[in-house]
From TrEMBL:
This is XTP/dITP diphosphatase. Belongs to the HAM1 NTPase family. The keyword Transcription regulation does not apply. It comes from Haloarchaeobius litoreus. InterPro entries: ITPase-like_fam, RdgB/HAM1. CDD domains: HAM1. GO terms for molecular function: ITP diphosphatase activity. The lineage of its organism: Archaea, Methanobacteriati, Methanobacteriota, Stenosarchaea group, Halobacteria. Its EC number is 3.6.1.66.
C-alpha cells in the first residue's frame, strides 16, 4: 500500500518517509481549507476531499499545523499561515512581547483517509516565543525556542527528533502497524 501525502512541502514528505514503513508518495493537490478553530476538522475535511478527488483508491494523508500562543488563548493556531502572511513572524513576536506569558506550542494534526473513515493523529512540542535567532527552518522557526534553542538554530535532524509532526507521525505509524481490529480509540 502506498500512502499519498497531500502536500507541496517536500520536507514533510521526507519526514514522513523516516517514520512510515509504507511507501509515501507526494501529491500536490490544493484541497479546500475550511475555516475552523480546530486543526482536526480542517485536516479531516482536506483528507476526505483529496481522497475523493484522487480517485478513492489509495489512502491519503493530510496535515494541518499551527503555532499556539498561551497568552492569546492559542492564537494564531489554525490561522498561523494567514497571520504570518499579514502580520509577519516579527509581528507575532512583538505581540507576544506585550504579554506576561511567552509560552507556546507547535501542533500538527494528521488526517488519514482510506475511504471508510478518517483517523486523526496529533503531535505537539512545547516552547516559548523569543526574539528571532537562527538561519534554518521556515515560518515561525526563528522565534520558537525549545530547550534553549530556536527551531531555526537546529539542524534538520535535531528539529525532526522533537517535531510536532514527527510526534504525530510516530502515533500514526504505530496505529498503521497495528492489526485492523486494534485501530480504534484515541490517538
Amino acid at each position: 500500500m502506498t500512502i499519498r501525502f497531500v502536500t507541496s512541502n517536500e520536507g514533510k514528505v521526507r519526514e514522513a518517509r523516516e517514520y512510515l514503513a509504507e511507501p509515501v508518495e507526494q501529491v500536490n493537490y490544493d484541497y479546500t481549507e475550511i475555516q475552523s478553530d480546530d486543526l482536526g476538522d480542517i485536516a479531516a475535511h482536506g483528507a476526505r476531499e483529496a481522497f475523493e478527488h484522487l480517485g478513492g483508491e489509495e489512502p491519503v494523508l493530510v496535515d494541518d499545523a499551527g503555532l499556539f500562543c498561551d497568552a492569546f488563548d492559542g492564537f494564531p493556531g489554525p490561522y498561523s499561515a494567514y497571520v504570518q502572511d499579514t502580520v509577519g513572524v516579527q509581528g507575532v513576536r512583538d505581540l507576544v512581547a506585550t504579554a506576561d506569558d511567552d509560552r507556546a506550542r507547535f501542533r500538527t494534526v494528521l488526517a488519514y483517509c482510506d475511504g471508510d473513515e478518517v483517523n486523526t493523529f496529533e503531535g505537539a512540542v512545547q516552547g516559548r516565543i523569543v526574539d528571532p535567532r537562527g538561519d534554518g527552518g521556515f515560518g515561525y522557526d526563528p522565534i520558537f525556542e525549545h530547550d534553549g534553542q530556536t527551531m531555526a538554530e537546529m539542524s534538520t535532524a535535531e528539529k525532526n527528533a522533537i517535531s510536532h509532526r514527527g510526534r504525530a507521525l510516530a502515533k500514526f505509524a504505530d496505529w498503521l502497524a497495528a492489526e485492523p481490529a486494534e485501530r480504534k480509540g484515541p490517538r
